[in-house]
Amino acid sequence: xxxxxxxxxxxxxxxxxxxxxxxxxxxxxxxxxxxxxxxxxxxxxxxxxxxxxxxxxxxxxxxxxxxxxxxxxxxxxxxxxxxxxxxxxxxxxxxxxxxxxxxxxxxxxxxxxxxxxxxxxxxxxxxxxxxxxxxxxxxxxxxxxxxxxxxxxxxxxxxxxxxxxxxxxxxxxxxxxxxx
Length: 180
Known about the structure:
By secondary structure, the chain is an alpha/beta fold. The protein contains 10 helices and 7 strands. It has a 4-stranded parallel β-sheet. The protein has a 3-stranded antiparallel β-sheet with strand order 3-5-4. Helix 6 runs parallel beside helix 9. The relative contact order is 0.14.
């Protein structure tokens, strides 16, 4: 497809990859948001040195990517524990099997790692209504704000762009963040 666009002179600014790349269906949400060979090997085979997304990026001439992110999941009972939830440097407000990241720590990590490894430059944050529906987001003042502010602060530091799913409750709040 990329070569066909090049032959036709169609400019491409970036490629969007949807939720398949991080195993949303397999894990009930974002379990690992990095180029993990076990998640992308069926679609883009790679190896430890050149995982699937890194290999795809190279084949596309290094064009930047935008990647989908949905709700964060601790994982299904058959999964290993989510390494992000288990890391004390990353804070989450959790309810059941899901959670909302708090602060810039997690975002700084995933933006930097994915930017360095396969030229990820933007995130499409989806499923926000589901996450904002958590009682922790509706019954406290800071949980939703700290999620968005942490993501926005990290995006600004990492020169990253964020596209948020349109939600009434986030629309006004997102105007305070430069990268959103």
